[in-house]
Amino acid sequence: MGQPITVVEKPTATPGIVRFEINRSLTGMGHERYRSAAEATGQRPPDELARRLFERGGVEAVHIFSNIITVDLAPGADGSGLLEVIQGLFIHYRPGVLPPTDEELAAAADAG
Length: 112
Prior knowledge:
It is elongated and about 55 Å long. The chain has 112 residues and is an alpha+beta fold. It has three helices and five strands, in the order βββαββαα. 19% of the residues are buried.
């Protein structure tokens, strides 16, 4: 469930900086800057994306402005796999993971 994000990697003139443009805005007109996963404490999409990028490893900082994501790579790291992390931000059920049935959802609603 969920839709993949369309992501285009854009070239940069600075080694160690990777930039992506996506087909939706994550921050509106605000800037979000994260220097560690610990700084991504919120529950909004840019916070979750920053956490996932840091979890992937090799990332020193993440900057998100609207639909542009800029990643500062750690020395010696490359950007492979970052595009896939961004694409999957709104995918809730990965291959091999079954979504809950209607009965399971109803039982969870009754229990809550």
